[in-house]
Write a sequence for this structure.
């Protein structure tokens, strides 16, 4: 399960960096809330 969470965090973070996207834009792209994007990317301990 932890691997899946890490993969999601990396996927979201990579998208933000590669596209210069905001948390809101990433949330829209992945069909999740911007709070979820923030939690996944900021709180990831990779």
């Amino acid at each position: 399960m932890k691997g899946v969470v890490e993969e999601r965090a990396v996927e979201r973070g990579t998208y933000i960096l590669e596209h210069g996207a905001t948390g809101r834009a990433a949330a829209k792209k992945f069909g999740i809330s911007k709070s979820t994007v923030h939690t996944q990317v900021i709180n990831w301990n990779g």
Summary: The mean pLDDT is 90. Residues 4 and 19 are 22 Å apart (CA to CA).
